[in-house]
Amino acid sequence: MQEAPQPLGRLIARDGDIRWVAFALVFLALAGAAVLEAVAALLSVENVWVKIVFMPPLLLIPSFVIGMFLQRTLRALRQRLAVLRRLADHGVVLEARVESQDWTIDSEGDRFWTARYRYSYLGTVMTLARRANWSGFRMPNPESLRLLVDPERPADTFVIGSRGSGAARIAALLNTIGVAFLIFWLAGWALLFFGGIREQSWGPLLMGGLLLGLPLLWMVVWIVTSVISRFRSS
């Protein structure tokens, strides 16, 4: 079935791949800033030989690594934006029903509970796989997904909605909260590294949040997710 075109801005704002690319760009920016901080600290050293020995590798090695990952990240961003642009221009909405759910193992040997959804367009049958963000959890998945599909490339999709049990909606929300806690935790350490602890009024609060607050909240999310996972699988 066909619906009104989806605004490109809305697709970009809701796309999980774009969010992870943005997170990668922020991480690379922080890594670059950390290198600049180290270079500034090295420039303040009075010993000239220390600068001569340590300055070239400090500049060349991190710059090469950051540049390599930056190129890959920007390439992934361009490719995903091209997909979303085509979907916004002439995408069609289809329903994909869950076909199977089982464990998959990634290259590092971690197990992820993965659901495969089946959909078809003009006789072309495709499968979309979605897995949990965290390893070892048998997460409840939606029974069906509403997909925005590119008619010319049916494998290019965007999930615009889902239909499932309350446990599946709670699991999706917990996944999002867990990722948000991880991002806040990394951002807090970045702020601490770049001198955020100098402010005495909220410095102890920042340290407490990094060492106790966010890890405890993440453990609560982990426990609730585990309970839902076991309840669903029983």
Mean pLDDT: 81
Strand order of the largest sheet: 3-2-1-4-5
Radius of gyration: 22 Å
Q: How much strand content do the residues show?
A: 15-25%
Number of strands: 5
How many structural units, i.e. domains? 3
One letter per element, helices H and strands E, the order comes to HHHEEEEEHH
Judged by helices, strands and strand pairing, the structural class is alpha+beta
Percentage of residues in helical conformation: 55-70%
Give the termini distance in whole angstroms: 37 Å
Uncertain regions spanning at least 5 consecutive residues = none
- Tally of helical segments: 5
Shape field: globular
For the biggest sheet, the summary is:
5 strands, antiparallel
Helix-strand layout with pairing:
Layout (H helix, E strand, L loop, with lengths): L7 H7 L1 H28 L4 H43 L1 E14 L5 E11 L2 E8 L12 E6 L7 E7 L2 H28 L9 H31 L1
Antiparallel strand pairs: 1-2, 1-4, 2-3, 4-5
Helix pairs in contact: 2-3, 4-5
Report what the structure shows.
- Strand 2 and strand 3 form a beta hairpin.
- Helices cover 59% and strands 20% of the residues.
- The two termini are 37 Å apart.
- The protein is built from 5 helices and 5 strands, in the order αααβββββαα.
- The protein has 234 residues and is an alpha+beta fold.
- It has 3 domains: 81 residues; 74 residues, OB fold (Dihydrolipoamide Acetyltransferase, E2P) (Beta Barrel), CATH 2.40.50; 67 residues.
- The chain is globular, with a radius of gyration of 22 Å.
- The model has no long low-confidence stretch (mean pLDDT 81).
- A 5-stranded antiparallel sheet has the order 3-2-1-4-5.
- Helix 4 packs antiparallel against helix 5.
